[in-house]
Amino acid sequence: MKSVAIFRHARSEGPGYFATYLEQRSVPWRLIAIDAGEALPRDARAFAGLAFMGGPMSVNDALPWIGPLLELVREAVRNDVPTLGHCLGGQLIARAFGAEVTRNAVKEIGWGEVRVTDNGVARAWLGEEQAFEAFHWHGETFAIPPGATRVLESAHCANQAFALGKHFGMQCHVEMTEELVRAWCRGGRREIEDAAASPGVQPVAEIERELAPRLERLHRVADRIYDRWIGGLAKG
After folding, report:
1. Cβ-proximal residues to 143 (8 Å cutoff; 6+ apart), any chain
2. CA 177, CA 215: separation in Å to the nearest integer?
3. Closest CA to 209 of 133, 137, 115, 116
């Protein structure tokens, strides 16, 4: 089986639980460290699927790799190679599909409930799940791309996830591990303090409260999404 390409845009935002999930199911994967200057692959068809992680930058920034990465997503779609996006990754996929990425009404940092929308596409990806506590760290949001279906929403961000065929983009994070949560809180403490007035931002103590059971519940939801996604991977 071809490997899944995992694109890392910032050293602090690695694949986390997603890599663990793939390894547990013997799905090979390869990290492409854009943050370290690694070149983008020339052909999406060299991989079973493309997965994009988060990052502090905006898809609207004039970074030299964003344009080529958007075109790689479009090439993947043209060739039936599934794409998966986490936060910035979801924004990249949405932008490649023709949707705008804009500032969200409020910044979201920490844990918050997301609701599963009431439609057949959402049920195909998430079963009978109706709502769950997801992890958030973003100030921007995507519009739902043409032809896609909203599958997750929340009080502070209407578009938390969308699906279009084999492709799935999320604004929230389901890939978190204890190591990632604690590292982000250490590195982002000033950002949290500066945005403390936002109704979507939690203090560090609350973010780290009951971390193990929260992550266990989050990973059960991640398993549902990832199970559906790897079912569409190219087998050649």
Report:
1. 94, 99, 100, 101, 102, 159
2. 7
3. 133
- Going along the chain, which residue ranges are E strands? 4-8, 29-33, 49-52, 83-86, 101-116, 131-142, 149-153, 161-164, 167-170
Helix (H, G, I), strand (E, B) or coil at 52: strand
How many residues are recorded in the chain?
A: 236
Amino acid at 91: Q
Q: Cα torsion at 164, 165, 171, 172 (round to 10°)?
A: 150
97 three-class SS: coil
DSSP 8-class letter at 40: P
Residue 160 near residue 134, CB atoms below 8 Å? yes
- Give me 42's structure tokens: 């020339």
Taking the C-alpha atoms of residue 205 and residue 179, their distance in angstroms, rounded to an integer, is 15
Nearest to 210 by CA among 137, 111, 113: 111
Structural fold of domain 4-230: Rossmann fold (3.40.50)
- For residue 4, what are its two tokens? 């899944």
Please give the structure tokens belonging to residue 50.
């493309």
What backbone phi and psi angles, to 5 degrees, belong to 138? -160, 155
Task: Quick: pLDDT tens for 94-142.
Answer: 999 999 999 999 999 999 999 999 999 999 999 999 999 999 999 999 9
Over residues 179-189, the pLDDT tens digits come to 999 999 999 99
